[in-house]
Design a protein that fits this description.
Radius of gyration: 16 Å
Number of helices: 9
Distance between the termini: 11 Å
Helix content: 55-70%
Bound molecules: adenosine-5'-diphosphate
Order of helices and strands: EHEHHHEHEHHHEH
Number of strands: 5
Shape: globular
Length: 186
């Protein structure tokens, strides 16, 4: 099963992805985690991405595409995967579509974990206290929200039109939300 996990920063994508990894025995592919690993290891890609990440902006599309091209051909992706944090704008949707054609892959479902902005800010501020992430400062958190609503939210409409979008209420306990996701991936 190939799943897109969509939704705003703080929407719970990472938390729910962990559950899906276990349940479906497929990897989570988080562009944010991959980029942080590159930054930590000071690779060329990481050095290029760091300033964008630290200011809450999107890393250039060609950098992300290069990273995904390498990742999606790895053998653990054969039985499926959960894409978390990609695609993040309409250009990346196009890039992903092209890549999927090349790989002969099809996305089965796009799950949009929904939450309102107040709830998201509350969660992100709480998380920032012990995340150790350099982009978890209040002004950068707000910037990431703004980028989400301006650049990423439009892709929800795209997946709605293609018919693979499922909306899941992301407000509630972790277990409640996991329960809702379990229902939709049956
Ligand atoms: P969030 O908590 O905001 O969902 P992520 O861990 O997904 O954070 O991403 C952190 C940062 O990494 C983003 O603010 C952005 O700079 C960069 N990033 C992650 N995924 C992408 C992507 N698909 N395209 C561009 N930039 C990305």
């Amino acid at each position: 099963m190939k799943i897109l996990l969509l939704g705003p920063p703080g929407g719970g994508k990472g938390t729910q992805a962990k559950f899906l990894i276990e349940k479906l025995n497929i990897p989570q592919i988080s562009t944010g985690d991959m980029l942080r690993e590159h930054v930590k290891n000071k690779t060329d890609l990481g050095n290029e991405a760091k300033s964008y990440m630290d200011s809450g902006k999107l890393v250039p599309d060609n950098v992300i595409l290069g990273m995904m091209k390498v990742r999606l051909v790895e053998s653990d992706c054969n039985n499926g995967y959960i894409l978390d944090g990609f695609p993040r704008n309409l250009q990346q949707v196009e890039n992903l579509n092209q890549l999927l054609i090349e790989l002969d892959h099809t996305i089965d479902i796009a799950i949009n974990l929904k939450a309102d902005e107040n709830e998201l800010m509350k969660r992100l501020i709480k998380r920032s206290k012990n995340s150790g992430r350099s982009d978890d400062k209040i002004e950068i958190i707000s910037k990431r929200q703004k980028v989400y609503w301006e650049q990423t939210a439009p892709i929800i409409q795209y997946y709605k039109r293609t018919g693979i979008l499922i909306e899941v209420n992301g407000i509630g306990t972790i277990a409640e939300i996991t329960g809702r996701i379990t229902e939709v991936i049956k």
